[in-house]
């Protein structure tokens, strides 16, 4: 599994790792129960510090996207049910994105079309 890390991005590398793994899970490129590389292996594959990968894995574990077991390694977790805390966070982040879209004069129709196209990637 090779992630694409943009060292010039303003997004921290650990967040890039998290984002790409979440998208991989949502698009079924990563299946529930699939074993992920160890922290050391992932760091070597993408050329980053092990602590960076460890931070990403910790965040993903805390959010329930992955499971870690000393004997069996790190695995993709089953898809989750909707929790109120996630829904609250989602709505706050969506509100901010829509506010920025409004400031940049992105039309509601364009936003809805883009959301539909993006969401369809996760439904396949």
Describe the overall structure:
The structure is a single chain. It is built from five helices and three strands, in the order αβααββαα. By secondary structure, it is mainly α. It has two domains: 64 residues, Arc Repressor Mutant, subunit A (Orthogonal Bundle), CATH 1.10.10; 40 residues. The protein has a three-stranded antiparallel beta sheet with strand order 1-3-2. Strand 2 and strand 3 form a beta hairpin. Helix 2 packs across helix 3. It is globular, with a radius of gyration of 16 Å. The mean pLDDT is 95. Keywords: DNA-binding, Transcription, Transcription regulation. It comes from Enterococcus ureasiticus.
Question: Secondary structure elements and their pairing?
Answer:
Elements: H1 13-26, E1 35-36, H2 39-46, H3 50-62, E2 66-69, E3 73-76, H4 84-103, H5 108-123
Antiparallel strand pairs: 1-3, 2-3
Keywords: DNA-binding, Transcription, Transcription regulation
Domain HTH gntR-type: 11-79
Protein name: GntR family transcriptional regulator
């Amino acid at each position: 599994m090779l992630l694409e890390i943009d060292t010039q991005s303003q997004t921290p590398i650990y967040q890039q790792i998290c984002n790409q793994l979440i998208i991989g899970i949502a698009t079924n490129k990563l299946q529930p129960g699939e074993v992920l590389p160890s922290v050391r292996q992932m760091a070597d594959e993408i050329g980053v510090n092990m602590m960076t990968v460890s931070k990403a894995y910790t965040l993903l574990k805390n959010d329930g996207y992955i499971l870690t077991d000393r004997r069996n390694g790190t695995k993709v977790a089953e898809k989750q049910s909707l929790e109120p805390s996630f829904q609250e966070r989602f709505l706050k982040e969506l509100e901010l994105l829509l506010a920025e879209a409004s400031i940049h004069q992105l039309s509601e129709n364009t936003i809805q079309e883009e959301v539909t196209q993006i969401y369809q990637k996760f439904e396949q």
